[in-house]
């Protein structure tokens, strides 16, 4: 039996810990730009869904109230654009004024979202038959909820881009 002697590996030296440096102006500027781009993308999707929601909401208001197309559109704009504007105002309000703004804006946001969801669902259901009314109701509720979530997400990203 033969024995082969292998060389012992040299011990490794411990690596020095390197302190992380603050990002340079170039990195920060690039980060802000990419965050603004992402926020803009989210807000564009919200805007597209808002257009869809406005159309269905106007149709639902016209069906329920028997009003004309113009009145339905004006009411739809007031409802959907109202909750978007109130949410943006709430997010952008100074910290000292935020509780006072929230006192009025929060219940109005909930009310307009519920109204938008109900009217969207009604408009979707008016074209559905049989069991398809259930997905239509779901879509009617999902569209305003998604507009709200996208608006809030995009606005938070956009407003926070300067605090990186």
**Biggest pleated sheet:** none
Domain tally: 1
- Approximately what portion of the residues adopt beta-strand conformation? under 5%
Structural class, judged by helices and strands?
mainly alpha
Radius of gyration (CA) equals 27 Å
Shape: elongated
Write the layout of secondary structure elements.
Elements: H1 25-65, H2 69-92, H3 98-125, H4 133-160
Helix pairs in contact: 1-2, 1-3, 1-4, 2-3, 2-4, 3-4
Walk me through the structure.
With 164 residues, the protein is mainly alpha-helical. It has one domain (31-163). The chain is built from four helices and no strands. The longest helix has 41 residues, at 25-65. The mean pLDDT is 84.
Summary keywords:
164 residues; elongated; single chain; mainly alpha
Give a short synopsis of this structure.
This protein is mainly alpha-helical and 164 residues long. It has helices at 25-65, 69-92, 98-125, 133-160.
């Amino acid at each position: 039996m033969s024995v082969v002697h292998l060389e012992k590996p040299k011990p490794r030296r411990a690596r020095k810990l390197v302190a992380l440096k603050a990002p340079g102006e170039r990195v920060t500027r690039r980060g802000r730009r990419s965050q603004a781009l992402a926020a803009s993308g989210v807000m564009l999707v919200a805007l597209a869904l808002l257009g869809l929601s406005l159309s269905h909401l106007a149709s639902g208001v016209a069906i329920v109230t028997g009003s004309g197309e113009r009145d339905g559109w004006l009411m739809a704009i007031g409802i959907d654009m109202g909750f978007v504007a109130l949410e943006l105002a709430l997010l952008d309000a100074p910290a000292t004024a935020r509780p006072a703004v929230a006192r009025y804006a929060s219940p109005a946001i909930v009310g307009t979202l519920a109204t938008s969801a109900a009217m969207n669902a009604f408009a979707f259901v008016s074209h559905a038959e049989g069991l398809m009314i259930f997905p239509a109701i779901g879509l009617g509720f999902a569209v305003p909820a998604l507009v709200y979530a996208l608006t809030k997400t995009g606005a938070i990203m956009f407003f926070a881009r300067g605090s990186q």
